[in-house]
């Protein structure tokens, strides 16, 4: 079993992949999956649990959870870099 988690933005028919996390044991990935609550409504982001390339489950998540996962996975700073200026 090769589990991973992927965050998608709900753009278009398939969404845009924002980040993937697969660098942990299956128990750790399942613990993260279970710790993230499902949003009460449709949101711009959803989390997908994958086994290899097979879709296992998915759920809509709030922006707060997106930030938490990006921080936990070490990807947060990659999304919020300063734009270069000509000063």
From TrEMBL:
Protein name as catalogued: Uncharacterized protein
Lineage of the species this protein comes from: Bacteria, Pseudomonadati, Pseudomonadota, Gammaproteobacteria, Vibrionales
Species: Vibrio mediterranei
């Amino acid at each position: 079993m090769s589990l991973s988690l992927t965050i998608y933005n709900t753009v278009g028919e398939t969404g845009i992949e924002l980040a993937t996390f697969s660098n942990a044991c299956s128990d750790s990935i399942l613990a993260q999956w279970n710790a993230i609550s499902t949003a009460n409504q449709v949101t711009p982001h959803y989390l997908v649990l994958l086994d290899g390339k097979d879709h296992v489950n998915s759920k809509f998540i709030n922006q707060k959870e997106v930030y938490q996962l990006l921080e936990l996975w070490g990807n947060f700073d990659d999304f919020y870099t300063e734009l270069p200026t000509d000063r």
